[in-house]
Fold C-type lectin domain-containing protein.
Amino acid sequence: MLWIGAHEMPTLLPLPRHFNWANGQPVDMSYGWAPGEPEGYNQHCVTINHAGGYTLHDNICWFIHKFICQRL
């Protein structure tokens, strides 16, 4: 799993889920997610899973993840 720079601000209401990239832009919730994802309401970071076909997953932020950076 790799953290790809997106996270969600925890809210009291579980739906709808909104994730933002580190630059503040919203994550497209209609593209790239693994079936059934995002599914964990205590999982507020977005990771990519190479074993799952490079699909997006919500994950626990305090887990230690490798990460990907983009040079701007």
The mean pLDDT is 84.
